[in-house]
Specification:
Number of strands: 21
Strand content: 15-25%
Structural class: alpha/beta
Helix content: 25-40%
Largest sheet: 6 strands, mixed
Number of helices: 15
Distance between the termini: 54 Å
Oligomer: single chain
Radius of gyration: 24 Å
Strand order of the largest sheet: 1-2-3-4-5-6
Shape: globular
């Protein structure tokens, strides 16, 4: 048997290629939208991808399952569990098999058995893998999707918070408790291959190692220590991170069937006049992907700064609308990677890019100031600044600067009317990175008296300043 995991660090998402080396057939588990890496590895290993399987309808990235089925004649194995509200709607157009608890299928000499493991979502399933080519009838491992992670389990509140399905959080948590009972009965030696790692918003304390075992999770995973359902439900639903706004769109896209990807090159904007016109259009957005320091020193008015790092898709999904045309400022060698990152969360409307050096032609640019902790403390005493803390709710609860106003970065754009115009506005997060994005967002929306706190809340703590809770 051939086994290879793939990790998208920008989405903290795992997918897997499993192949039978005797028959040359292979399957992809929970495929990402950009499917080229699977075929590059399969070709190198002499394998032919004939199937793909999904553990559930994903909320945090666009699935590549439909792309594989329509462009590469791949058969899909999709969950038929859960209620009618969460069934795949595009399957009539593709070769597929709907699977339920107890369903078995094979790829060459590799066997798969379906376990219904609801909790994260009603339709969630897991796949037990048995390598019969190696002469064993005992399973080797389990693909758990967003059911069991390393050190954590899938959050049950996404349907309620992201898709507005009232009451589903408690129901999902109760289902998760029952699913974990089943997990505890699996053999300790089974390897566990999860759908996400540290950095994903699909849980609150995911581990950073790529795999684990059933036995190890029984010993160390907090969720598997609970024996009382009510206590488990309370801990599972308490202080889950805010689900990114784009999660609701991903559920819809993956349920109805994503569009096939567009391989056409991104057009280049080579004059500053054309680029400035895109900013003046209310139906478009210019995303400057440079590091925060470079953006802060000089940028085009109206642009927003989302640095192209592993958090790029997350903040693009929070701050860019799906009905906006997107233009990006980036290095030419980054354009394709930026496009793939945007497409991974369904932001397909990338209309053009401009090279960073186009700023040299600009006659009208902006910058913003940085403030250090002693100066902020003085200005808070004077009452001359309005301080906004853009961290998550759980971070705010643990402690915050006196006088701060909590407006989580992803929700800041919806609260602009709460921000006064008669004071300088200081933005602050934990380290200064998220608040840099927030500073650009406010400046791009007409607030010109914006300042970023250098070093963020961490610098405030390092200076020994008082903290409120």
């Amino acid at each position: 048997m051939f086994f290879r995991s793939f990790f998208d660090e920008k989405l903290a998402q795992y997918s897997y290629l499993v192949g039978c080396q005797r028959t040359g057939e292979a399957i992809v588990i929970d495929p990402a939208r950009y499917v080229e890496p699977y075929f590059l590895v399969a070709e190198k290993e002499g394998l032919h991808i004939v199937a793909a399987a999904e553990t559930h309808i994903h909320a945090d990235f666009v699935s590549g399952a439909r792309e594989l089925a329509l462009r590469h004649d791949v058969k899909l194995y999709l969950s038929d569990e859960g209620d009618n509200d969460w069934k795949y709607e595009y399957v009539d157009d593709v070769q597929h098999e709907k699977v339920k608890d107890g369903t078995s299928f094979s790829i060459g000499n590799i066997g798969f058995e379906v376990l219904h493991t609801p909790g994260h979502t009603p339709e969630s399933i897991s796949f037990l893998l048995t390598d019969r080519g190696g002469g064993s009838e005992k399973p080797m491992g389990i693909f758990t999707g967003d059911f069991v992670f390393v050190g954590d389990v899938g959050r049950p509140d996404l349907l309620e918070k992201a898709a507005n399905v009232a009451g589903s959080s408690k129901v999902g948590a109760e289902q998760m408790f029952e699913s974990l009972k089943r997990f505890k009965n699996l053999p300790d030696f089974l390897q566990v291959w999860p759908g996400h790692g540290a950095g994903s918003a699909c849980g609150k304390s995911l581990g950073a190692v790529p795999m684990t075992t059933v036995g190890y999770e029984k010993m160390t995973n907090w969720a598997l220590q609970h024996t009382d359902k009510e206590e488990f439900v309370k801990e599972l639903t308490d202080e889950q991170p805010e689900p990114p706004k784009y999660f609701a769109m991903m559920k819809k896209v993956n349920k109805e069937g994503p569009e096939l990807t567009n391989d056409e090159p991104v057009p280049e904007i080579d004059t500053i006049e054309t680029l400035e016109q895109t900013i003046n259009n209310s139906q478009s957005v210019l995303v400057d992907t440079r590091p925060a320091q470079e953006f802060g020193e000089r940028h085009l008015p109206g642009s927003i700064n989302i640095p192209f790092n592993k958090s790029f898709p997350n903040w693009a999904g929070w701050l860019v609308e799906y009905d906006q045309d997107i233009y990006v400022l980036c290095d030419q060698n980054q354009v394709q990677d930026v496009k793939i990152a945007l497409q991974s969360i369904g932001l397909d409307q990338l209309k053009g890019f401009a090279k960073v050096d186009i700023l040299d032609e600009a006659r009208n640019t902006e910058s913003y100031e940085l403030i250090d902790v002693p100066e902020l403390n003085q200005r808070l005493d004077e009452g001359s600044v309005y301080l906004i803390d853009v961290r998550n709710q759980s971070e705010w609860n643990q402690g915050h600067i006196r006088g701060a106003n909590h407006m989580m970065l992803g929700k800041l754009k919806d609260r602009l009317d709460e921000i006064p115009s008669d004071k300088d506005i200081v933005l602050q997060c934990q380290s200064g990175q998220r608040s840099a994005i927030a500073t650009s967002l406010l400046q791009g929306n007409g607030f010109k008296n914006v300042i970023n706190l250098k070093g963020g809340f961490g610098a405030w703590l390092n200076e020994g300043m008082p903290v409120e809770k």
